[in-house]
Amino acid sequence: MTEETNDKSPQESSTLYYVIGAVLLVVIVAAGYFLRPKPANTPGAATAQTVPVNTPTPGPITGLACGKQYYNPAISLPRYYFTSEGEDLMTTKKVHCTFTMNQAGKVVATTSAEATLVEAPGRGGGTFRCDTKDMQLEANIPTVVDVVIKNDKQEIAACTQNFVLPPQ
Q1: SS3 82
Q2: Residue 22 contacts by C-beta under 8 Å, 6 or more apart in sequence?
Q3: Which domains does the chain have, with CATH numbers?
Q4: What DSSP element (H or E) covers 5?
Q5: Hey, how many other C-beta atoms are within 10 angstroms of the C-beta on 166?
Q6: 109: exposed, middle or buried (Cβ count in 10 Å: 0-12, 13-18, 19+)
Q7: E-only strand ranges, the chain
Q8: CA distances in angstroms from 80 to 74, 110, 166, 167, 168, listed in the order given
Q9: Which one, of 152, 136, 161, lies nearest residue 85 by Cα?
Q10: Which of 1, 39, 83, 116 is buried most deeply by CB count within 10 Å?
Q11: Residue of 86, 89, 85 lying closest to 125 (CA atoms)
C-alpha cells in the first residue's frame, strides 16, 4: 500500500478558500435576487383600481334640520356617548337636543344636551353638534335613539336612528 501525502503548499489551500468564498458569495447574492418581493403589477394580471367616490356637497341651509346621529363606545365599559349633528339658520344662537333611548320597546334612558351654532358661510347658516354624557345601556340589543331638536325660536326637528351597540 502506498501512502499518499498531502503535499499542498499553504498558498494552494488559501486559494481554495478564496474560490469557496467566491462561490458562496455568488450563491447568496443569487438567492437574494430570486427571493426578493415581486412587484404587484405582473403583466397580464388585472389590477384593482380605486374609484374616486364623490361625496355630496351639502346644500344651502334653509332651516332647522337633523343631520347625522352616531355613537362612540367608552373603552372597557358598557357605556356609550351619543351625538346628533344638524343645521339651522344663523338667526338661531342655541339648540336644545333631547335624546330618548329605547330598547325592546321600552324607554331605558333620556338625556339632553345644548349646542351653539358654528357658522358655515358657504351654506348660509350654521351647524351644531349635541353630545350626551356617557350612558350605560345593554349591548347587543337593538337600540332606537330618538332625538328632538328645538331651537331658541321654538322650532322643532326630530330624527331617529337604530343601533345595535357592541359589547365592551
Answers
A1: strand
A2: none
A3: 65-164 (2.60.40.10)
A4: none
A5: 11
A6: middle
A7: 65-73, 79-88, 94-103, 106-116, 118-120, 125-131, 135-136, 142-151, 156-164
A8: 6, 13, 10, 10, 10
A9: 161
A10: 83
A11: 89
Q: Among 51, 58, 63, which residue's Cα sits nearest to residue 87?
A: 63
Is pLDDT of 2 > 80? no
Q: 40-57 pLDDT, tens per residue? A: 665 555 555 666 766 666
Question: Which residue from 120, 124, 116, 161 is spatially nearest to 143, judged by alpha carbons?
Answer: 161
Give the integer Cα–Cα distance in Å for 122 and 66.
19
Q: What is the pTM of this model?
A: 0.65
From CA 130, how far away is CA 117, in angstroms rounded? Answer: 10
pLDDT digits (tens, 9 = 90+) for 70-91: 999 988 888 999 999 999 999 9
Give the integer Cα–Cα distance in Å for 17 and 34: 26
Query: Could you give the CA distance from residue 63 to residue 49 in angstroms, rounded to a whole number?
Result: 40
Distance (Å, rounded) from C-alpha 133 to C-alpha 109? 12
What letter represents residue 75's amino acid? I
b/e per residue 13-52 (b: at least 16 CB within 10 A): eeeeeeeeeeeeeeeeeeeeeeeeeeeeeeeeeeeeeeee
